[in-house]
Amino acid sequence: MIFQFNDFTPWSPFIFVGLFVVFSYLLNQPRQYLADRGERVSWNEYIARFFVAVYAVVGVLIFLSPLSLFERMSLLLFLGFMLQLSVIDALSGWLPIEYTRAASLAGMVATLGRGDMDAFVVLGAMAAMAGIGILFAVARFYFNLRAQRDVLGLGDVWLSVAIAAWCGWSDTLLALMMGVMGFVIWHACSRCQRKEGPLGPWLCAGTLLVLINRVFNPVVVW
């Protein structure tokens, strides 16, 4: 991977602090959302700050990338959605449809905002969302049927659709693959013998890795 930064590199510490403040503010809404639904006891400020720091670092890399200003700002917006979803799922174990739906709609708007008004591009984005959603829905049905319980939540299906709205077909497949692999490794190495765990944060983590590769190596596709 070749990192080519823009002229804002000397301002990296200030960019990090700014993103940390903004991302911390974005967590006020999910914190209140969980509190309104009786999930206040599940909120852990240390875990939340850890996620904020990680996403702020990724945000700095994206802001320093050679992409256009609009693309960098739209990806930072995407990070905000992913941060909220990661924290909610990590702390409460579920992904509200309100957040995944908003992330999906924002992804479609960002696609149109890039100037890709061609009908084939729009249809391609919608096809990617539908294809990924169906693929993950089939996987959910299969694994839940085999385990005779919910091992893959419906929120994870909608999260995959939201990722597809922003990343497209191939990048989403790669992100989901890395996310599932990370979850399996974490689950296998976990000291407590739990039967399940939050998959959403790992899918978002895979998406972060794909985004970093995408902004610095835009010609690497498969």
From TrEMBL:
GO cellular component terms, A-Z: plasma membrane
Parts of the chain that traverse the membrane: 12-28, 48-69, 75-97, 118-143, 163-186
Alphabetical UniProt keywords: Membrane, Transmembrane, Transmembrane helix
GO molecular function terms noted in the UniProt entry: aspartic-type endopeptidase activity
Keyword Transmembrane helix: yes
Ranges of residues in domain Prepilin type IV endopeptidase peptidase: 76-180
Signal peptide bounds: none
Pfam families registered for this protein in UniProt: Peptidase_A24
Keyword Zinc: no
Organism domain of life: Bacteria
GO annotation, biological process: signal peptide processing
Family the UniProt entry places it in: Belongs to the peptidase A24 family.
Protein name: A24 family peptidase
